[in-house]
Specification:
This protein is of the alpha+beta class. It has 4 domains: about 5-170, no CATH class; about 175-240 and about 255-265, no CATH class; about 270-315, no CATH class; about 325-435, no CATH class. About 45% of the residues lie in helices and about 15% in strands. The chain has 16 helices and 14 strands. It has helices at about 5-10, 15-50, 65-70, 75-90, 95-100, 105-115, 120-135, 135-140, 145-160, 160-170, 195-215, 220-235, 275-280, 300-305, 335-345, 380-385; strands spanning about 175-180, 185-190, 270-275, 285-290, 295, 310-315, 325-330, 360, 370-375, 375-380, 395-400, 405-410, 415-420, 435. It has a 4-stranded mixed β-sheet with strand order 5-4-3-6. α3 (about 65-70) crosses α4 and α11 crosses α12. The longest helix is centred in the first third of the chain and has 39 residues, at about 15-50. It is globular, with a radius of gyration of 27 Å. The relative contact order is 0.08. Belongs to the Rv1128c/1148c/1588c/1702c/1945/3466 family. One of its GO terms (molecular function) is nucleic acid binding. Keywords: Coiled coil, Endonuclease, Hydrolase, Nuclease. This is HNH endonuclease.
Amino acid sequence: MARTSDRALDRQDDGELVDLLRHLEELKCAAEALQGRAALALDRSVRAEEQRRGLPEERQGRGVAAQVALARRESPARGRHHLGLAKVLPAELPHTTEAFRRGRISEWRATLVARETGGLSREDRERVDAELAADPDRLESMGDRELVATAQRLSYRLDPQSAVVRRRRGESERRVSLRPAPDLMSQLSALLPVKDGVAVVATLSREADSLIATGDGRGRGQIMADTLVDRVLGRTPLAWSQPTTPAASAQDRGTLEPGPDVGVDDVDVLLHVVVTDDVLLGTASGSAHLDGYGPIPGDLARELVGERTWVRRLYVRPGAGHLVAADSRARRFPRRLAQLVRLRDQRCRTPWCDAPIRTTDHIRAVADGGPTSLSNGQGLCEACNYAKEAPGFTARARPGPRHTTQTTTPTGHRYVSVAPPLLEGTDASAPPARSP
């Protein structure tokens, strides 16, 4: 397929191109199904070998999902999902499995069926599968929402109590997360029980209606966002500029302009900003790195430092892009050293994971003579820290332009991770995530 030229495609008529798109989609879906079968075969093989070696059953197969994730260039969480789906489909959803293998549905739609029937007994799950997927033409014609709604209706009819159990489980998983968004914005998300989520939005909406009625120049979305921030941080609302002309665009409305008489309550928040001294002093252009967000322009870094928000500045060696090394004799990473590791690595160091760092790990274990140092430390999420303890996994630091680690899986596949450049202009060529 890689050798197919644009000229060859240009010779096809429109109908042939549409047919090609459909055939490729079916091939892609069937390939995803085959990936699942390969993952399941790997799991069986690993467990059989570990059983032969006398490993307790509860410890067998611990590293399989991590290997699946690395092979598919995805996070460990996705690896666990792929392996779990591969186990469930043939065992409890045979009709969905057959449609998936034939390329009639995608891995995502197979996931939706598995997800919406997850609280049912095996017998009820098979009944839903038969009603939903026995007719592959009907299954293929469904959109995501229709598929989910149909699976939910069938599940509620067969086992109403399962909805209660799932709701309780869902409420126990409530959380808040933050991820970067374009234009130096951030996306704050909260997974809440439905009654709480609806109540929060209704409260913010009422506040927006009230302020708009008094002539506030901001848009509804702006007011709701500002009110959320004000109430969470417990700060006094800031003054907002009003459009100077009736023709002012919606984008111009609601510009933040706190005057000198506007007080902002002190908020006990600590920000970590990694910056060179030239950028901090304004004698050179460039960017800084805000922990928990990513790159920010130099002017914003200087603005943060100048405000009353607590900022801890960490300096980068110019031209190198890495933090100053530090060592410790402790078996556990001291707090400041752990902060340096986290600021250097930014996200979990396992290739393609991208999860927040939850633990500072010794690359070479202390029991094997590994020091508690910046060079022997790496930031990992909880899942990756757990996965690396599975039999056959090894890790070591290796030379590189920046801090570089290599993980070797039980099959001998090697994956390289290089700490990201903290600031622009300090990047050097990095090896691929997988090396021979």
